[in-house]
Amino acid sequence: MLISIPDILGKQEVADFRRIMDAHVWEDGRSTAGAQSAEVKQNDQLPPDSKVARELGNRVVSALLANTQFISAAVPLRIFPPLFNRYTQGKFFGEHVDNCVRGDHLTGMRIRTDLSVTLFLSEPDEYDGGELIVKDYYGDQRVKLPAGHAVLYPATSLHSVTPVTRGARVSSFFWIQSMIRDTHARRMTYDMDLAIQTLVERLGRNDSEVRSLTNIYHNLIRNWAEL
Ligand code: NI
C-alpha cells in the first residue's frame, strides 16, 4: 500500500531547505544503516545529530502534522527525527530491509517502524534514475515525485533506490510508528475517511448518515489504536 501525499512543503520552502543543505558538509550514508543495508548503500547524508538536520527535521514534522491527508493516512503515534540524504551520479541504495525498531539517542525516542516515508526535495527533471522501488503485493512500485511531495509505504517492504545517472536526488526520509499497527486496518480507516470527506462536501457534516459514518470511523480507530 503506497500513498502519495502532495505539497507537504511548498516550492519556496523546498528552495529554502536546499539552500541550507547545500551549505553543509555531508557524510557517508552508511552511518545510519543496519548490517544488511550498509552493504548495498551508497549515498550521502546530513549528519543525523547535526543542528541543521534537527532544525530541518522539525520543520518537516511541523508540516506533516498540519497536513490532514498525512494524519489520516499515517495515524501517527511517533515520527522519527527526519534524516536527509543525497544521491549524486553513480550513487544508489540496493534492495534492503529497514530496521524494525529504531532509537534516537538525542531525544530518547524509540519506535517500531510501521511506515517508511520519503519526502522528495528534488524535482524529477533535476536527475535521471534515482527511482524509489517498493516491492508490494501488486509488484514493484516505482516512485519519483515532485519536490515537496511524499510517499508513505509499509516499512515491511523490501525497497531500493536505482542508480542516479545524472544530477542529484535529494530527499528526507524517516519512519513512523502508527497508532494502527496493521497496514490493512490503517488502509481501511484512510479509505473510509476519504469517502466521508467526499460525503461531507455533498451532504454537510451534520447529515445523519454522515454523522453515523463519522462515529463508526472514530470507533474503528478507538478499537484499533495503541497509544
Ligand atoms: Ni530503506
Any overview of this molecule?
It is a single chain. The chain has 227 residues and is of the alpha+beta class. The chain has two domains: 3-178, Jelly Rolls, CATH 2.60.120; 183-224. It has six helices and 17 strands. The protein has helices at residues 11-22, 35-38, 51-65, 68-74, 183-203, 208-224; strands spanning 3-5, 27-28, 41-42, 44-45, 76-79, 83-87, 92-96, 101-103, 110-112, 115-120, 127-129, 132-136, 139-143, 150-154, 159-161, 164-167, 169-178. Strands 1, 2, 4, 5, 6, 10, 14 and 17 form an eight-stranded antiparallel beta sheet that branches. A five-stranded antiparallel beta sheet has the order 3-7-15-12-13. The chain has a two-stranded antiparallel sheet with strand order 8-9. β8 (101-103) and β9 form a beta hairpin. α5 (183-203) runs antiparallel to α6. The longest helix has 21 residues, at 183-203. It is globular and about 55 Å long. It starts with a strand and ends with a helix. Nickel (II) ion binds at residues 96, 98, 159.
